Amino acid sequence: MGKKAHKQAILPGESKPEEEDEFDNEADLEMEAMNELEMEREAEMQEFDGEEEEEVRAPYNKEAMEAITAEMAEEELPWVETLDIVAGEALNCTDVHDDLARELAFYEQALASVKDGRERLKAMNTPWKRPEDFFCEMIKSDAHMARVKDKLLFEQKKMEAFEQRKAKQTQRKFAKAAKQSSEKEKLDYKKDNLERVEKWRDANKERRKR
Questions:
Q1: Which of these ranges, 85-94, 130-139, 190-199, has the smallest mean pLDDT?
Q2: 135/152 Cα distance (integer angstroms)
Q3: Total-model pTM
Q4: What is the DSSP string of the chain?
Q5: 53 and 140 in contact (C-beta within 8 Å)?
Q6: SS3 labels along 23-83
Q7: What is the C-alpha separation between 51 and 44, in angstroms, rounded?
Q8: Nearest to 79 by CA among 44, 108, 116, 111
Q9: Of 2-11, 15-24, 138-147, which gets the smallest average pLDDT?
Q10: Is residue 102 exposed (0-12), middle (13-18) or buried (19+ Cβ within 10 Å)?
Q11: In Å, what is the CA distance from 104 to each residue of 42, 58, 138?
Q12: What percent of the chain has pLDDT over 70?
């Protein structure tokens, strides 16, 4: 019957091994750092919420919109004002349930239409590229983008802390395994030497009896 391995209990008054203390200290420090990052992120988000301007909703005038729509329908606008293009070929998608094939068909059809529209604009000598000094207003506010950036940075720091902790645990396990292997080699070497000494003693006793 082999002996069952039992974990060594820590009696009152005894201290934990240094490896466990070091692991607990590192885990506490990491948790404290993560809590600080979370608190900083929440504080910054509250600041951005306070600074963000209230959205101004324009009034919806249904009658005016219908009148303008009717006016636009009666007036025949030049193509450069609408930029509407009808694809020359039907959508080439044999299986509509195949997401990849369907999206590829949409992409190819849209690309062909864009090329057609670009050639028309070139033929009309109409500039179609955005000027290098052209700046347009962002759809998202600076405060919103700052919050997005802050969240991404927080997630990045969180992942870096997790990877560092995982690497430390792996190094600790490797160091522990190497130490156990070295101790085993020493014990085996010591045991082998003791066996040789015992054999040598037995051999000497046999020679003396003769």
A1: 130-139
A2: 26
A3: 0.35
A4: -PPPP-PPP--TTPPPPHHHHHHHHHHHHHHHHHHHHHHHHHHHHHHHHHHSPPP-PPP--HHHHHHHHHHHHHS---HHHH-----SS----S-TT-HHHHHHHHHHHHHHHHHHHHHHHHHTT---SPPTT-----SS-HHHHHHHHHHHHHHHHHHHHHHHHHHHHHHHHHHHHHHHHHHHHHHHHHHHHHHHHHHHHHHHHHHHH-
A5: no
A6: HHHHHHHHHHHHHHHHHHHHHHHHHHHHHCCCCCCCCCCHHHHHHHHHHHHHCCCCHHHHC
A7: 11
A8: 116
A9: 2-11
A10: middle
A11: 42, 38, 29
A12: 75
- Using the structure block, give the residue that is written with the tokens 């450069």: 80
Q: Is 82 or 210 the better-scoring residue by pLDDT?
A: 82
Q: What is the distance between the alpha carbons of residues 184 and 189, in angstroms, rounded to a whole number?
A: 8
pLDDT digit string (tens) for 114-155? 999 999 999 999 988 888 887 777 777 888 888 888 888 888
Q: Which two tokens stand for residue 54?
A: 């209230």
Tokens of residue 126, six digits: 């109409």
Residue 12's region, left for phi above 0, alpha for psi from -120 to 50, else beta, is beta
